[in-house]
Structures are given as C-alpha cells and as structure tokens.
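Per your request, structure below.
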C-alpha cells in the first residue's frame, strides 16, 4: 500500500535518533533518494510480501503483527518518533530471503520517511562498511552458532533418551533372562517328579485324573485374581497350614506360589480327593512345578511385551519409519515421549494425563512435535526438581475453536515475571551453567509457530506453570525454520 507523498525535510529526519549523527550532505542524500509518505489508518505492508522499503516513523502510531495460525497477533504498538521497520536486512542481499517478517498497520494518520530497500543497502555499505561487516558476522554467526548448539542440544537429548531407553529395556530383558534360567531348572525338576510318579503303581485312571488337574491348574494361573497384600498373606497362612497338616514338606515355600496362581483351599481339597494319600506329596510337588512354570512363562511374556512396547515407543518417538509430514494422533506422540522420558521423570513426579480422545488427527511433522514435547517436559521436570523433587506433571489435550490445545502443567518453582518475556529468546536460560543452552524453547517456538502455524504461550506462578501449544486442525505447508 502506498501513501500520500510529501516534501522531505533534512532537518526533520536529522532530528531522529537513527540519523542524528549524519552530516548535512548525508541527510540531503537521504531526502533526495528517499521520500516522506503519509498513510491513513490501515495496512502499510503485509508479512511475507517482498521487502521493498525501509520505514522510519516521523509521527503517528504504528502496530506490528505476526501471523499465528489463522490470526494476526499484535507484537508491538508505539507512537515513539524514529522507530523503524521493514527491510532492515537489505544490506545482506540475496543471502537472506528479503521479505517482510511482520505486518505493519497505522491506527491514525501517520507519516514515514521511506527509503527503497536497494538504496538502504547501498547507503549502509558505502557509509558504514565496518558496521555492515560486524552486522553480517553477528547475523550469520548467530545463525551458525544457533544451528550448531541446537544440533548439540538435540544430540545431548538423544543421549539422555538413549540412556533412559537402555535403562528401561534392561529391566525387562534381565527379568526375561532370569525367568528363562529358572524355567529351565523347573522344567527339569518337573520331568524328574513325573518320572517318580510314573514309577509308582498308579492306575491309568489316577494318572489321567492327575494330568486333568494339572491342565485345570494351568488354566487357573491365567485367571488368577489380583489380591491385596493382606488378602495374600491370609491365604498363604491358610494354605501353609493345609500343607503342613498333610505332611507336605516346605509348605511355607509352596503356599505363596499357589496363592499367586489363584489356588485356594477348596482347590487343594479337590487334588487330595483325586489321588491316594501316599501320592499327594508327589502330586503337590508336581503341581507346584506346573504353577511355577506357568508363572515364569507369564513373566517372560510380560517382559518381552514390555520390550516390544518400548521399541514401538522409540519408533513412534523417532518417526524413523514414517513420512516427515502426516496426519498424526497427538496422544500417541505424547505417550511415546513420556515413555521415552520416564527414567528422567522418575518415580517422585506424578504424571497425570487428561486427554480428550475425541480429538481428530492433525496434519503435522510428528518427529518435530516430539522434540517440542521433550523440551517442555524436560523444563517441567527441572522446575519440579528445583522445588524439591516431588510434584505433578499434568498433560492435557482439548479442543480450542479451530485448533487443538496441548497443555503441560507443572507444580514447580515457576518462571519469574521478569523472565517470561525472554524465555523464547535464543540462548536465554534460567538453568545453571552447563545444564542448558537456552535453545529448547526457541526451537520449540520455531517448530510450533513457523512450521505448524500454531502458537505457544505460558502462564506461570510458583506451583502452577502452564505451557500451552495450540496447533491448527487444518493442513499446513512447510516454511523455512
């Protein structure tokens, strides 16, 4: 949008803080190659359009906006003379995409000194060559440092996740190895006990009955009820007394196994009625090995299932076998991230999931959203640990008009009011030296806002900090991050 052209007064622009050190000749060149324009209330330029002009406000009021999702979010409003916007990086030339990084509107008749972007670039390089070199070094050096440290931070996070995953995998793997070794021993003893029984003078009917009891015992193991510690203790006492009364050796050791398998006194009465009295100790011993093998096989099954779930979670988290952009279920992404971080979260922090499972899948870059969840959860855990190590992390999803809300709420120390406006700045961190690069939230912001056209915001007070990520339900197109 173009405004009404007006005369340019070198003295007027020379009074602005941006130009106050320029010589009369330089001010004259600015007025000769630039212009003064007056804009009525409305838009001046739009975010994403080619950056053709550099604007310096002479009088009036300007408002700057950023596009977030489907909304224009106000980021700045000022009436200060001399504020500037527009093609501020024109001196970098083709090395940077020259587009407006925000939208500018005026709320009252406003005058600007307007300099074409090409002219601004030429003047900067001619008048301030050293400053241009310094600014170029600062700009590209900062970008390079940010990429390098960002990659380092991702590698550190990956190392932490790998250590946690290894720890989580080690437990079920070690349990499966132990159970397998014990199972081999029990099967050997079962064969030995079966040989002793077979050597006895028992009728085929008795043997068939005993095998039937064994089958039904194995079935009961699969359906064993979950007992409270008190209920289990009481039942163990009853079964131990039953075994002792019938002269069964090691009744105190057998009773807990039978209780775990869901066997009770009535069941043992059925076993005693089905076999001769002299055969009962061998029958009980054989059934004990049967129960133990079933329980050990259940343990192996549980352990291998746990390993399978962890591997699936790792694949879900890394998205290695999936397309970069897809329709994703945020709950699957959240669950995989929480599982991958479970070792870091620890047992002292209670994780509460308040999911709205009716929410639809959303078009997204799942691997990058997992990085956002990782950063936010990691910060929440650090905040809770700083508050004493015990607390609650609540992860909530909910609809929010045409967007999907993912909220991370922690009971940690909170974010000081003075820091809330800076937490998304690159390299800003409240963590001790060596514990944070200050890029986690900056990376999260760029992934959510720039790549997904969403928004991320924070509300905080001691004991209640909430990071809210809002993601659009409709398709997004990738933008440079």
């Amino acid at each position: 949008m173009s405004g009404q052209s007006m005369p340019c007064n070198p003295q007027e622009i020379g009074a602005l803080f941006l130009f106050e050190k320029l010589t009369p000749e330089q001010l004259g060149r600015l007025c000769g190659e630039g212009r003064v324009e007056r804009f009525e209330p409305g838009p001046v330029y739009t975010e994403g359009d080619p950056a053709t002009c550099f604007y310096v406000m002479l009088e009036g009021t300007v408002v700057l906006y950023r596009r977030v999702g489907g909304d224009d979010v106000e980021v700045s409003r000022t009436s200060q003379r001399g504020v500037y916007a527009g093609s501020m990086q024109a001196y970098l030339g083709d090395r940077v995409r020259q587009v407006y990084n925000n939208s500018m509107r005026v709320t009252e008749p406003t005058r600007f000194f307007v300099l074409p972007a090409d002219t601004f670039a030429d003047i900067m390089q001619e008048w301030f060559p050293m400053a241009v070199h310094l600014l170029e070094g600062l700009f590209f050096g900062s970008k390079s440092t940010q990429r390098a440290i960002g990659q380092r931070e991702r590698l550190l996070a990956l190392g932490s996740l790998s250590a946690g995953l290894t720890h989580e995998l080690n437990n079920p793997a070690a349990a499966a190895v132990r159970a397998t070794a014990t199972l081999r021993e029990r099967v050997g003893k079962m064969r030995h006990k079966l040989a002793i029984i077979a050597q006895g003078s028992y009728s085929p009917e008795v043997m068939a009955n005993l095998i039937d009891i064994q089958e039904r015992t194995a079935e009961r193991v699969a359906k064993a009820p979950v007992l409270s510690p008190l209920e289990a203790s009481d039942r163990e006492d009853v079964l131990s007394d039953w075994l002792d009364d019938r002269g069964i050796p090691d009744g105190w050791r057998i009773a807990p196994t039978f209780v775990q398998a869901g066997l009770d006194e009535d069941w043992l009465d059925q076993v005693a009625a089905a076999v001769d009295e002299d055969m009962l100790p061998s029958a009980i011993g054989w059934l004990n090995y049967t129960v133990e093998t079933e329980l050990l096989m259940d343990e192996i099954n549980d352990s291998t299932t746990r390993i399978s779930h962890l591997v699936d979670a790792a694949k879900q988290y890394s998205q290695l076998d999936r397309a970069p952009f897809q329709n994703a279920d945020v709950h699957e992404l959240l669950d995989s991230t929480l599982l991958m971080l479970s070792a870091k979260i620890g047992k002292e922090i209670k994780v509460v999931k308040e999911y709205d499972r009716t929410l639809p899948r959303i078009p997204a870059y799942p691997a990058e959203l997992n990085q956002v969840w990782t950063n936010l959860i990691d910060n929440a855990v650090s905040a809770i640990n700083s508050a004493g190590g015990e607390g609650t992390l609540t992860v909530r999803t909910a609809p929010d008009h045409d967007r999907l809300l993912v909220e991370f709420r922690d009971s940690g120390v909170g974010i000081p009011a003075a820091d809330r406006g800076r937490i998304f700045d690159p390299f800003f961190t409240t963590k001790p030296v060596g514990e944070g690069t200050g890029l986690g939230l900056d990376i999260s912001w760029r992934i959510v806002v720039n790549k997904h056209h969403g928004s991320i915001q924070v509300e905080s007070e001691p004991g209640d900090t909430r990071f809210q990520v809002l993601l659009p339900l409709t398709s997004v197109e990738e933008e440079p991050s």
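The radius of gyration is 36 Å.

Regards,
D.
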